[in-house]
């Protein structure tokens, strides 16, 4: 950093932005890496079945897969519409 | 017992071949008989960095296809008689490598060498896969830059799932971080990811930091591994890395901005 730098308009470094973006991305890629390949298809078919009986939107269902040392958990979350 | 080291990164241009040449030379200079293999079939470059490009007669693919013996293909380094180079083929493509063939060559090398350094090509295709498949230790070369860090994380996933050790449920590959092209002054200004930032993301054991240095291009221009430039910062950084890998405790250098007061004041 030279003396001239002190007179430049101060700007926030971009390294912190890089770190934040990477942390989000890497966490996402690590979690999706271990997911079974049938997951997207499963989610699509489940949604179709539920839509036969309940009027829900495309994003009403979420499927997540978690893996611990000795067990695998498939978590299904379905948001039903409010009764009015 | 011989150890196989893979120098890998996923991303290209981060310093895999520079690192392979430097650490292979460093290990040999420390008295360990070492072989360094170029896995980048079709785009060989290790021979240039090692300065033996005019002495290549047979290559890795010739040995795999049993068109030449290992001894015919291995090139003894001109600077160190404990170091041998096995060049890649320039005229074939990556499919010329087979898992069985690579395994056979490595088994034969293991009888005679203490360290076998595998210089991986960029990418995650066959050459890169076979370079890391048989490894005991992995040097993950990373630049403090988003795409390099992401690709390194991807490589770590592959090391943990697609290697021989992973497939046979053996002890996992020892993974080490080598952060290259590091500029402490830019880190200080907040313009570059710091060592700590990269470690927060990758959670790897840091083997060393190689500063951005003119000596790396000088070394490749002349075909001598940068570790032989003992006065240079990059050369010393690689010597530290070799020593740490061999179990010595050396404090990390080149992480802090060491510029003098006057240079800071006037730039440069």
Offer a concise description of the structure:
Chain A has 84 residues and is an alpha+beta fold. Chain A contains two helices and two strands, in the order ααββ.
Topology of chain A as a string of helices (H) and strands (E): HHEE
Structural class of chain A: alpha+beta
Question: Given the C-alpha coordinates, what overall shape of chain A results?
Answer: elongated
Q: Could you tell me which chain pair has the largest interface and how many residues each side has?
A: A-B, 20 and 24 residues
Oligomer: heterodimer
Number of helices of chain A: 2
- Helical proportion of chain B, percent range: 40-55%
Strand order of the largest sheet of chain A: 1-2
Biggest sheet statistics of chain B: 8 strands, mixed
Counting DSSP H or I runs of 4 or more residues, the number of helices of chain B is 13
User: In percent terms, what proportion of residues of chain B is strand?
Assistant: 15-25%
What's the shape of chain B?
globular
Rg of chain A, please? 22 Å
